[in-house]
Automatic annotation (TrEMBL):
Keywords: Peroxisome, Peroxisome biogenesis. This is Peroxisomal membrane protein PEX16. Transmembrane segments: none annotated. One of its GO terms (biological process) is peroxisome organization. Residues 74-140 are annotated as: Disordered. It is found in: Peroxisome membrane. It comes from Cepphus grylle. PANTHER family: PEROXISOMAL MEMBRANE PROTEIN PEX16. Residues 122-133 have a biased composition (Basic and acidic residues). One of its GO terms (cellular component) is peroxisomal membrane. Belongs to the peroxin-16 family.
Length: 246
């Protein structure tokens, strides 16, 4: 990735980390009008950054969070002594004569910080596999897929606009947002040869469709009563969970 693209991803990650705090803080200081103002500004900034990544830098299907968190345990480098042993060609394993089982050689046992249960070959293979997955380029998007990703990126702005036009109690913003989400996923479903991160992102978006059951006005009219009834039944008839459900 180029340096400008990395900066865009960094700013996008910062916005996603602080948006809830900014919304709550603004609502406490400036009230409801300030809260909706900061929501619109943050969503507008996020949409602009994502459209730049999509259309200018050809970033493909964008994941959430934009920068994948680093797993420090999996990415832990080899100990310097282990690297010296590898470079000097020392044999780190011993193969049993009868069992053919591969075990680590006692002369080349690494330090406690870099010790693991697998064989050195398994560790090297897993590290190389993870490196290949992280360094895979994004899948090129055609016109249909670019439109689908653009719909997903601009959906929050269209939802906010519809809330301003029809109000928070109307079904139209809820229906519009759901139609845009389903349309985006349907258009992206024809895309083949996705890498691991992109497949995980599409699965995440599909699972997030269940949140529409918890969004107003659907929640206020249908889900709330059933959820409260279920929690009440659990509190009354299932021992040990009453404190949590109440």
């Amino acid at each position: 990735q180029s340096l400008p693209q990395q900066k865009l991803l960094t700013w996008l990650s910062v916005l996603e980390c602080v948006e809830v705090f900014a919304e709550m803080g603004t609502a406490r200081v400036w009230g409801e009008m300030g809260r909706w103002t900061i929501i619109v500004l943050i969503q507008l900034a996020k949409a602009i950054l994502r459209l730049l990544l999509l259309l200018w830098y050809k970033a493909g299907i964008q994941t959430s969070p934009p920068i994948v968190p680093l797993n420090r345990e999996q990415q832990q480098p080899l100990h310097p002594q282990d690297m010296e042993d590898n470079s000097s060609g020392k044999d780190q394993t011993y193969v049993g004569r009868r069992s053919s089982r591969v075990v680590r050689s006692l002369q080349n046992t690494p330090s406690l910080q870099s010790r693991h249960w697998g064989s050195p070959q398994q560790r090297e293979e897993s590290q190389s596999r993870r490196a290949e997955e992280m360094n895979q380029p994004p899948t090129p998007l055609g016109l249909q897929e670019t439109i689908a990703e653009s719909i997903y990126v601009t959906r929050p702005l269209l939802h906010l606009l519809s809330l301003g036009v029809w109000g928070q109690r109307s079904w139209k913003p809820w229906l519009l947002s759901a139609v845009l989400d389903i349309s985006s996923l349907s258009l992206l479903s024809d895309l083949k040869d996705l890498n691991r991160r992109e497949r995980a992102e599409l699965r995440r978006r599909t699972i997030l469709l269940l949140y529409y059951l918890l969004r107003s006005p659907f929640y206020d009219r249908y889900s709330e009563g059933r959820i409260l009834l279920l929690l009440r039944l659990l509190a009354d008839y299932v021992p040990g969970v009453g404190f949590v459900t109440r």
